[in-house]
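Section 3.1: Structural characterization of target chains.
Under the original work plan, the team committed to producing a structural model for every single-chain target entering the pipeline before any wet-lab resources were allocated. The record below documents one such target. The sequence was received from the expression subgroup and is listed exactly as submitted; it comprises 690 residues.
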Amino acid sequence: MSAEATNPEAHAEVRPELRRRGRTRLDLRRLGRAALLGPASRDRLPDAIGHVAEAHRAHHPDADLSILRRAYLLAESSHRGQMRKSGEPYITHPLAVTLILAELGAETTTLTASLLHDTVEDTEVTLDQVRAEFGDEVAFIVDGVTKVEKIDYGAAAEPETFRKMLVATGNDVRVMSIKLADRLHNMRTLGVMRPEKQARIAKVTRDVLIPLAERLGVQALKTELEDLVFAILHPEEYERTRALITSHTGEDDPLLAIAESVRTVLREAGIAAEVLVRPRHFVSVHRISRTRGELRGPDFGRILVLVGENADCYAVLGELHTCFTPVISEFKDFIAVPKFNLYQSLHTAVAVPEGYVAEVIVRTRQMHRVAEAGVVALGNPYATGESADSEDERIDPTRPGWLSRLLDWQQSAPDADTFWTGLRAELAQDREITVYRADGGTLALPAGASCIDAAYAQHGEAAHGCIGARVNGRLTSLSATLSDGDTVQLLLAQDASSGPAADWLGHARTPAARIAISGWLQAHPDGPVPATAAPRAPLSVPGLRGGGGNAVADLPDAHVRLAGCCTPVPPDAVAGFVVRGGAVTVHRVHCPAVAQMRSLGRTSVAVHWRATADCRVTLLAESFGRPHLLADLTEAIARQGVEVVSATVEPPVEQRVRHSYTLQLPDASVLPGLMRAMRDVPGVYDVGRV
């Protein structure tokens, strides 16, 4: 099925008719090969550079067109004699790609490279010739778009081409702008291909190119690519959606009346605004039909309000929410909190007296330009002094977080398959979060990322030794999912032999983490190799002693023992109770057992401390599991001159371990220093008395 044939222009999304110098903006969807060829016959090459020049001058009135004419002459002469599979002269393709970018407002360098983007790949023109004639910038962009040789890479040619292209995009985002426009024109004319090849190209477009268009904010290309892919991969659902839109077209559109009401409200409020009805594209209609069931008139489109300044957006919002009934759950402020792809707008929905609910988008004209064209609308983001049409334009993130992550982890991808799988996984994440590091820095991560992902994003391969994390000051497991705005402190083991557990792969969301973990596990199939421990002094671990230490009960000949539940030591306030056999058990006064003893009617006995200094205490150490932890803890205890009476280690739970130590202290005054020494052992996060 031809995607071009099944995308009827009658229902294509209408772009707002922004007029520049009295000229109506061309509709990208109506400009295919027919618009380029015009009335000329097939054996005559059309000179369509005039269309490009006109579209370019609409956005850049002072642009120098001489370089475009020179690029066109080189492209036309080098591609002369080459034909597309559709039977058209090959030059129609670079011209169509360039026209798409010119309509989006691309600057002259981008258009020049676009005209030449296939010359190095498909003709005798060399990259050095392009560089000599048009400069380093154009040559870099052309090289970035040029595919790698299939003869050299075989089946890995496509993944390696995308890897090369994305690395180039990291240095110049205009590379990806041309690739997106190139894929759009190819998708428009895909009907001449075999069905299986159409499906293969459409799947790559769906999995890679459409997410890239979304991340770069080029909505004008993204929406059309979505519709073309939809027509190829889901023809039956596409036809149902087309029929649904067609059946609605003949009805009176209630959105037109609602838009007129909005115009009246804003006019009476003295707010200068352009109010447009913006039909939904095919995929958008299909999505809402699946969630809302039967669609009503306003569901087929949205109202777009364009104003001059940011403050006007909020003024419009105030009038809408005053004069209509707002649907509060639908309100989103992407001006105060922009999306990670440059998108800024206010989204709301209002109920009107006729019983309809209409979605409304409010933005400035500059926001609209960026929302439609994304990075293309930013001109040349690398030229000093060249920039925006207004003070409100945001600075171009030439290296956004997702692209930085991608460029980092692709270097460690061991082969093309790993890169291709990781790329699709990375692009499948459609939202980003920002978390704050304990040192004050920030990390940009995909939504759903865990502490494991944060560890590898911050520490790289050193994250193999991560043993835990604190999120917003509270200890949590490494598998915990992070939220936007969280503060995360990652705890690393000092033991170089530490490594990730196999179950980390189940909690890692980023390709960087998954590639690093998989690589370590493959290199260490038997798990961590214990490091050779340094010689330690022998530890004395005497048997458990009974008795009450230096506690004395005011009861003649009574046998006194310290309670194991709270292990009191001088100078704790204590209470004694007579138990079976006439013995006196000594508890700290705040021990829960004291209240229980009193409720049972146990006889209370006064207790005081002897002048002797030695005493016994039980401490509970909580830590992350790692090699040599028990040895390091007992060594820290021995260095304080304390004897270990008994020790118990519970089985680890989520890599956390609890150690109980009953200790004989030479003096109660050493207890605070002992607890500090135990807390200083790597991996130990808390030490307290039982």
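The chain has a mean pLDDT of 80.
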